[in-house]
């Protein structure tokens, strides 16, 4: 016990012998979550500033005779003349595996009521993105579990792929499906005990969303067993704009920890349109000069410095980013969408018309692209789905022309029939990602024309029947596709036998 | 009333004129005030308020306010003056200001820098660390 007393006394002695230097200032004005401060002559850009009552702020505007500071916390207690002090620290958030399965706010504080987070490390929220020399090209796939995406617009580990579309077109659903698919792959991979298996941990950043939507997302992830591999950073619409501005950067810091420590991570920014709006609000209150659509001049830099932090590092891990942008009336040429399109390595464009026609996910093949391309695909997908994008694009073009004329030649009619079947086959219910081996098996059957004799309206039912058949009866075949990741003669023979057997049973059921 | 950019610039120029050899000159300040009265520039009240702010901030850099909870001797004030003059490389004069809320110890303020060695400050540090 005396040892404890000694420790306390030595602490007191240490404290009493030392004068602490602080750089202080006073509040001149507080409005809309932004404080203008006098003094603070030594404050650094982005430094944390301590306000009375425990609130903290970040110095964002360093001017000749005042400091503009966003306040993260309750501003109701602050008043003119209150003393503030610099902390000498940049804003940091807790990082590490302790955050998995948890919901945190923009500052990394738990908001899920599951108690404190036992994080051993913290990472700065703002960090310079990895340079050229430490990066490695993207050539490892990251499966979304959505057949239309994995076969035509593949995403690689370390890539930035934009999900863009109007409201209610299924942007969040694609992200959630990807997180669920990664969790399923993690479970299978970790259970197999394979030494070279690299799990992908997910970070979902909700910016400016309704609390009810965030709750729904958490419930979906929990129900699918994906929450244990996921960190959720929540800055809902009711949160102050400063937190909404910071949340994606906090999420990036959490993801960077996985990347720096040799692990792979996926981060979803849902969405960056609202993030830009929050930043615009802060900038206008800070009286920064406004530009196009009243956004500040550095709104491009805001998103580029955030998305550049996603990378695949040589000898370390990777951070894949899926930023989401909401368009207005399908206008991809608006300010923020064009900015983010130019920063990312491709985009998945979701069309309202397709969505309303019941084609879900409503991926527009013509406007969607992955600049990483087939280097992020496994061989089996290339073998079975190499020509799909061209066929589908041709189908859309022909379908548009076919509306004007009634007489079609046999070749055009065959192309239209095949295209219609591909469209039907790519329909997929939400929260139901498909394993890559299942996708490969279905696409192999499509490639070998097994669906040609099935009525277009029956294709979805046939695909469901095929999935059931393969899952229940051909688990070994699926496992060998997964392990080999390419079509060998043995696998093709197995697929042919399985396809013939399934076709017979499906025809008999009809 | 919001200060116009030109008024801010003028206040800054007047402030620069008032500083001679790194210190505020009373003579120069009197001259500036006379000029303002004579020429009546735009937004005179705003101009003078801004000018006052700059002068006050400059004067605060040369003044060490020593807040204390117990007695402070002249020797202590002299010692603080010497240390601060050396640190800031300008003549700093110290003045005592009693503050019983500190419980014990000293708090020295020079410009926007605060040197805290008080029991109240240590208790605050401890409470935030717990």
Provide a descriptive summary of the structure in words.
The complex is a heterodimer of chains A (510) and B (130). The mean pLDDT of chain A is 92. In chain A, a hairpin with a 5-residue loop joins β3 and β4. With 510 residues, chain A is of the alpha/beta class. Chain B has 130 residues and is of the alpha+beta class. Chain B is built from five helices and six strands; from the N terminus they run αββααβαβββα. In chain B, α1 packs antiparallel against α2 and α1 crosses α3. Chain B is elongated. Classes of the chains: A alpha/beta (510), B alpha+beta (130). β1 of chain A pairs antiparallel with β6 of chain B, so a sheet runs across the interface.
Overview in brief:
The complex is a heterodimer of chains A (510) and B (130). With 510 residues, chain A is of the alpha/beta class.
Give the mean pLDDT of chain A. Answer: 92
Overall geometry of chain A comes to: elongated
Q: How far is the N terminus from the C terminus of chain B? A: 45 Å
Average the pLDDT over all residues of chain B and give the rounded result.
90
Q: Shape of chain B from CA axes?
A: elongated
Please report which band the strand proportion of chain A falls in: under 5%, 5-15%, 15-25%, 25-35%, 35-45% or over 45%.
15-25%
Q: What percentage of residues of chain A falls in helices of 4 or more residues? A: 40-55%
- Count the E strands of chain A: 16
Sheet having the most strands of chain B: 4 strands, mixed
Q: Give the largest chain-chain interface (CB within 8 Å).
A: A-B, 20 and 19 residues
Strand content of chain B: 15-25%
Strand order of the largest sheet of chain A: 8-12-11-13-14-10-15-16
Q: Count of helices of chain B?
A: 5
Discrete helix count of chain A: 16
The whole-angstrom Rg of chain B is 19 Å
Radius of gyration of chain A, rounded?
27 Å
């Amino acid at each position: 016990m005396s040892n404890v007393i000694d420790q306390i006394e030595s602490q007191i002695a240490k404290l009493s012998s030392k004068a602490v230097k602080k750089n202080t200032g006073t509040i001149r004005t507080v409005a809309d979550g932004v404080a203008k401060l006098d003094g603070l002559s030594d404050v650094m850009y982005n430094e944390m500033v301590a306000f009375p009552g425990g609130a903290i702020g970040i110095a964002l505007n360093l001017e000749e005779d005042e400091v503009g500071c966003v306040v993260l916390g309750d501003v109701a207690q602050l008043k003119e003349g209150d003393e503030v002090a610099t902390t000498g620290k940049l804003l940091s958030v807790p990082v590490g595996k302790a955050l998995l399965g948890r919901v945190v706010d923009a500052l990394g504080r738990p908001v899920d009521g599951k108690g404190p987070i036992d994080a051993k490390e913290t990472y700065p929220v703002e960090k310079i993105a990895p340079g050229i020399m430490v990066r490695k090209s993207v050539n490892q796939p990251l499966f979304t579990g959505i057949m239309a995406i994995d076969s035509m617009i593949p995403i690689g580990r370390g890539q930035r792929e934009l999900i863009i579309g109007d409201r209610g077109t299924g942007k969040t659903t694609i992200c959630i499906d990807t997180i669920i698919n990664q969790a399923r792959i993690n479970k299978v991979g970790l259970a197999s005990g394979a030494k070279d298996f690299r799990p992908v941990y997910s970070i979902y950043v909700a910016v400016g969303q309704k609390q009810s939507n965030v709750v729904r997302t958490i419930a979906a992830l929990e129900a699918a067993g994906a929450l244990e591999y996921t960190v959720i950073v929540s800055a809902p619409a009711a949160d102050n704009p400063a937190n909404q501005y910071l949340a994606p950067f906090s999420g990036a810091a959490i993801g960077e920890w996985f990347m720096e420590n040799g692990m792979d991570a996926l981060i979803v920014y849902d969405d960056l349109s609202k993030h830009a709006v929050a930043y615009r609000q802060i900038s206008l209150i800070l009286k920064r000069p406004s530009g196009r659509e009243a956004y500040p001049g550095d709104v491009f830099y805001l998103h580029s410095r955030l998305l550049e932090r996603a990378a695949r590092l040589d000898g370390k891990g990777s951070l894949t980013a899926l930023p989401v942008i909401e368009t207005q009336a399908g206008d991809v040429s608006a300010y923020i969408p064009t900015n983010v399109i130019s920063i990312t390595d491709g985009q998945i464009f979701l069309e309202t018309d397709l969505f309303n026609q019941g084609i879900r996910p409503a991926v527009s093949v013509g406007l969607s692209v992955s600049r990483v391309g087939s280097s992020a695909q496994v061989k089996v997908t290339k073998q079975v789905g190499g020509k799909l994008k061209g066929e589908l694009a041709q189908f859309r073009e022909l379908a548009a022309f076919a509306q004007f004329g009634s007489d079609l030649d046999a070749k055009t009619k065959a192309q239209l029939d095949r295209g219609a079947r591909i469209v039907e086959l790519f329909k997929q219910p939400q929260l139901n990602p498909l394993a890559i081996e299942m996708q490969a098996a279905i696409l192999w059957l499509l490639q070998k024309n097994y669906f040609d004799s099935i009525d277009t309206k029956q294709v979805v039912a046939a695909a469901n029947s095929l999935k059931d058949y393969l899952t229940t009866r051909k688990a070994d075949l699926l496992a060998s596709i997964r392990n080999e990741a390419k079509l060998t003669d043995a696998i093709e023979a197995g697929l042919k036998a399985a396809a013939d057997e399934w076709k017979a049973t499906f025809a008999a059921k009809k | 009333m919001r200060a116009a950019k030109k008024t801010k610039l003028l206040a800054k120029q007047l402030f620069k004129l008032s500083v001679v050899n790194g210190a505020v000159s009373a003579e120069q300040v009197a001259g500036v005030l006379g000029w303002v009265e004579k020429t009546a520039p735009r937004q005179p009240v705003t101009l003078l308020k801004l000018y006052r702010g700059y002068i006050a901030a400059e004067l605060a850099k040369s003044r060490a306010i020593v807040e204390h909870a117990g007695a402070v001797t002249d020797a202590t004030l002299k010692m603080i003056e010497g240390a601060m003059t050396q640190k800031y490389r300008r003549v700093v004069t110290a003045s005592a200001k009693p503050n019983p809320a500190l419980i014990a110890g000293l708090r020295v303020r020079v410009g926007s820098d605060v040197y805290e060695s008080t029991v109240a400050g240590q208790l605050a540090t401890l409470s935030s660390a717990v």
